[in-house]
Fold each of these.
Amino acid sequence: MSRAISVSHGEFGRATIYQLTRTIITHAHREGHLVFNIGGPDQTMTVGDAILPCTRTRGCAISPWEPHSFNHLAPGATLTLTLYIKPMWFLENSASAEYALNFGRPDIAVTPVIGDLVTRLTAHLLDDREEGGFDDLLFALTKESFEQSWSAAPVNSLASACTRFNDFRVRRSLRLMQDSMTEDLDMEDVARAVGLSRPHFFKLFKQQMGVTPNLYLNTLRAEQAIEDLLTTDKTVTDIGLDLGFSSQASFTRFFSSNVGIAPSEYRRVAHCSDSAFPMMGQPDRLSGMPVPARQS
């Protein structure tokens, strides 16, 4: 059974060690995403339309909102080091704003430098250290992977990076879904509210965001669930009911399918540093993308 070994939330992202024994269905995150195989059999990941190796020598990089899945094909448990990086990091550390919300390519070679950082971050998580060092390692590994992804990026990557978040109707729909994620939201109503037919809305949303509206909404609910698991004393049942699920069982199935492990397991092993960003934030006025809440 898939389980979490360690989960740590830091200043600009989080890192996890998962023991995976089954496939994780197609899903997305608002964060940039790096996956490294640190033990067990080789597997693959589907990132967009590409099937990529997830091995000790090849990692995977997934841009924010890029649909992806973990394909558990070889028998046995695979250990992964998985990073989730807030878009704010891309905005502050990219040489050009056009690159700010994307990796250049999804296939990452585990060079000696990256391999050393993977080993050191893994050791940090396994030691369950709460003192300093986590954010520095997370930053260094992300930076090294990000720069490699652009060093050999396809020439059309820039054009792809510039296509998102341009249509005001999509931006408005993002805000509507953010505000109504706990309700039984009908996408027909969302389409009507932004002045589009349902087919046109789905086509435009997929062009702009790279995912369907339903997948986007699932991501919002999964993130809110993680936020509640980490920052409230609510029971797993109450968290599921507050998010619109009819029972704890249906919420657990949803969470396990989208995050990879059960919500009770996530809560058991996760911890946050004092500087950790919240999972959820208020929508940015220009892009409609949720951003971290201001620190006082």
Note: Residues 3-161 form a domain with the Jelly Rolls fold (CATH 2.60.120.10).
Amino acid sequence: MFLDKNKYIEHINDSDQILTMRKILDKVERTLKNHAAQHTDFLDPYQRRLSYSFLNRIQDINFDEEGGYKEAERKTIDIYPSYKSKHDIDSAISAVRVDGSFKFSDLNHRDYLGAILSLGIKREKIGDILIHDDYGQIVLHKEIIDYIIYNFKNIGKEPIKLKEISIHEVSKGIEKYREIAATISSLRLDAVLSSACNVPRAKSSSLIRSLHVKVNWQPINQPSYEVYEGDVISAKGFGRIILHKVMGISKKGRIKIIIRILK
């Protein structure tokens, strides 16, 4: 069956995501033609929102997301014929446990990801990386599990051992962050970012206009964009920030907030 892909994605204005969305539509076509399940690469929440904007309009398919655990950030989408159920299809993801003789609390997400990508593995084949007190877990596509087990031997200079585990053993890791309290004039993105990153408002505005800032994984180029409690903000060169709580108004009429800066 042929799909008019342009029709399904004409509403998507983010040019950086068009190729990814077209690849998902290619999988839909294969499902409709071959009556077999297809699985996407791992997608962030923003990419999944874009995907659902057209998947919900296509007849004769079902789809579900899968990330290893309920709160997973990165998930794949399983696409399969509408007359089948989730239980009729095989999972496309698996997981490995990472052990070593060092303190896992000394490692962060960036350490893991850098070591994995140095093996030539594409980012979209890796799901969440979960760091626990004395071990780590990595969710990944089944198609690369043998490669990663045989080739992933070190994180930095530290030797590690990997073993495949059931996807049902995956659990949310420890989230490390530092917390700061601040007062700001408004909940504009540039104001929150300026306070969180300890940079002048002009600098935060410049970062936003240069498309170096995302809110909930979506690129934002408007400094006046309003953010809300629970929003996740990422800024190039500054990492990831969560507007954890909005505490009310100070005596001077400023907004009191709690910000978490993830490590």
Note: The chain has a mean pLDDT of 94.
Amino acid sequence: MRSIRVYLLIVSFIFAHSIWAQSGAKKDMSMFLENERNSINIFQNVADSVVNVSNMRKSRAMFDMDSAEVEAGMGSGFIWDKDGFVVTNFHVVDGGDSFLVSFKGNKKQYRAKFVGGDPKKDIAVLRLIENPTDLHPIIPGESKNLMVGQKTLAIGNPLGLDHTLTTGTISALDRNIKGYAGVTINGMIQTDASINPGNSGGALLDSQGKLIGINTMIFNGAGTGSSAGLGFAIPVDIVKFIVPQLIKYGKVIRPGLGVAILEDYYAARFGLREGAMIKYVDPKGPSAKAGLKGISRNSFGEYFIGDIIVNIDNTPIKNYDELFTAIDKYKIGDTVKVKYVRNNKEKIVTIKLVQI
């Protein structure tokens, strides 16, 4: 009988302690400001969706045939779905031979493979080879209706410090910033939430904990490499357009003219100051059918410049970046009027954009 009483006393104590702990936790949360509670709840709910991504490369000693993996860089990423797809920046994984992904509160590193990437939008997708017991995909929001002044929260791994939360606001919208591939990424989100090296590929969230962008780059002060309150994120609407294509095709299906453009640096050596010079024309593409020509060379080794595109549907073209931005606004199958210069004479042709 006494043992039963002792048992009941212990159970009662445990139950009472549990109730006290729960009420204490609620009481503790009530001590915080509403904005603080919002930040705490978002971090607790979303941190498991954000991962650390390590870019591993093979290193071989001069007289040693065996190669070892070394970490060439690291950044952040987030879980896209239950199938184990991880989204990050292309520049985080560029040049990697293999990749390691780590989760909050889990010391194990999980191997992942490269699925596809888009350097022009600086987005890449990995897939976990082995999954943890439970994956927590991030919840995508929308970026088309964002407003300056909204609260932002950035979760990532700055300077190797895993799962760090910083908060701020949307400082500006529709920033056009030149990205990793040397072309402009349009519509980027500017935030003053602190973003530092290692945050790249991490999540920018709204006050509901939904993804509104991928933290991608910073403008730093005095060459320090640290945040100066100018962080930029790729809008989630672009992410939602790009990622499914990378998962399905390993690349982004884009409209194009069926030409290759000479790099601006080399075009300048030809004396070109404005326009995009055609380097090569796909003989089976629409530009070839329209009569456009690329750079050629005669039997004496003399080079002849290619046609110079100066206008797309009344949009002036000064370089490759502007040509890519102009064409990227169209869809495969659309027709555009292309104004080009050959032998100092302007000509106009109509070209139907094809898949590239």
Note: The first strand starts at residue 50 and ends at 60.
Amino acid sequence: MLDRIIDFISGLSNNLQGAFWLFMSVFAFTTMAALAKYLGNDFHAFQISFFRASFSLIVILPFLIKAGLSQGGINTKVPLLQIARGTISALGIMMGFYAIVNMPLADAQAIRFSSSLFVVPLAAIFLNEKVGLKRTIAALIGFLGVIIMLNPSGNYNVAAISALGAAIAFAGAAIFVKVVSKYDQPITLMFYSNVVSIPIMIIPAILVWVTPNFDQLILILIMAVCASIAHNFFIRAYAIGEASVIAPIDYVRLLASAAVDFLIFGIIFGINTLIGSSIIILSTLYIVRREAKIQKSKKQEFEQI
């Protein structure tokens, strides 16, 4: 049965395959976030972050052992860049989980989507990418959505600022991924992300440590499995499909998060979240589609040479 499903998916166009994998990653990410928020009733966000990194490493370990020191294993051509990326990712994960535990899930996810907006100035600074006027304006409009999400009255809370910090950290990690992925395979990136994260997270985790019981360990393991699956599907989606075509599917995560908030935690979607997230999503989609057009134009010019 599983083989038939895989064969059916393989027979689809690249964009449909990408859309399928991205759609599946949405539910894996949402499940992971919901479990993290639920576990937040018993554990501090820092300990949950440590659990996530540790158990995720255990999940991918069999694949790494099989690959060994070969390409796609633990061997890396850029160790310093991997360490730098892993450090930024660790900080992003810790701040992201703190936001998930201490604020509505939909709000935390909506602010998290602003990460794509921060990639614009970071790419200009560190990758020397040319950022046009239209792209800059779109990013600035998107940041307006972030301000609305945070609270226009200025009554900012630690969780919202943490979500924003996570978005900035993940944007920085994305810049490193653009460079590191030229040298190493996705599974290698996942390995170093977790290996670097664990020693960074262990000290704050110990300071707030609560020993989990058997039932909690099962939930933690499921959360880690969902995290690994989500990242694998996410990477696979963008490796196959065109970003400008499949990107809108990722925003289903916001709707799924709002549903989890309401059905499980009894939290209703706020007006600030609705307005701010709409601005962020529209701005991000514009940037993604414009970038795709520019890349397509460059490709056509190259083919004509």
Note: The two ends are 48 Å apart (CA to CA).
